[in-house]
């Protein structure tokens, strides 16, 4: 029982460290957030950090996992049911409202880390890629259902990836401009494409 | 005449410093690329760097300007004439080929800097925003011409921003996945939307 209580306490401490690291990396960038900053923000000792994480790399990978879970949790009420234009628009509205609430700060919790680590840290890049894949699959499920019903002209795999890509561009450009408009228009364009029963026009056509 | 020759030489030296800094920031990230790295890569003395740039911030702003020019120069054969679906597809193909040639490394030359500096360096964030606006305006010109001809159902300003946003997401996700597919499908989706003379479907419609 003592062991069990210690384990629960240990999990809580580990989680506090990861959440502090996620917040600092979000605010200061991955490179500038030091283990000492994390230690102070989490209110733990240096030996406690090293008990859970061998080094900053291990902590960074835990942050990417944590942020992936947070992103999927936040969107969970929508992600499983993106199988009508109305549901896609409701998801889009939720994403836009969320950025307004954040004053367009921080960008995508995993995409912004991805951009920082892509050329210097292959292991972290792959962890972000893995997070993207989970997100893409959750979006794809609804489009596959639309396609099976005959309501989608086009490839649901391509259009699911296009939605996530538009969302990533929208979060980045909203962060740079401190304005949700890039996010709104990019998601609207892809959702309008999904809603176009006619599908793409032929090459050179208008 | 001597003064003139010195000025030309000075401009060449300044340019060499900016190009070395751009390359290092692209490879290592903005924070990790030190002035000493830039000095060594450019083959100049420390006093030469400080002759042209008061500090790393001044150099970073020059890099953002330089990369904006490079991006616009690379796309110049396309950007002035994006007023048909065929021209939009040719631009899309050029962007995809360029990423293939780069093996999807580096992401967008200005977007990747933007993501790194957005929360910590407002002046650099605004410089990236300014680069985005120039790019967006160049894209918008063609769509405005399409709209004036009656060939575009939708707002050309929104769709120009949607194209740039899809491109930004595509470059980021191509960089993370080391695969051009996100770039391809996101640009295709927005171009298909632009080519859909019917425009968006009403709320709840299919």
UniProtKB/TrEMBL annotation, chains A, B:
Query: Could you tell me which SUPFAM superfamilies the record lists for this protein?
Result: Homeodomain-like, Tetracyclin repressor-like, C-terminal domain
Where's the DNA-binding part? Answer: 34-53
- All copies of the HTH tetR-type domain together span 11-71
Is the keyword rRNA-binding assigned to this protein? no
Query: Does the record carry Transcription as a key word?
Result: yes
The name this protein carries in UniProt is TetR/AcrR family transcriptional regulator
Alphabetical UniProt keywords? DNA-binding, Transcription, Transcription regulation
> Pfam families, per this entry?
TetR_C_13_2, TetR_N
Q: Which PROSITE patterns match?
A: HTH_TETR_2 (PS50977)
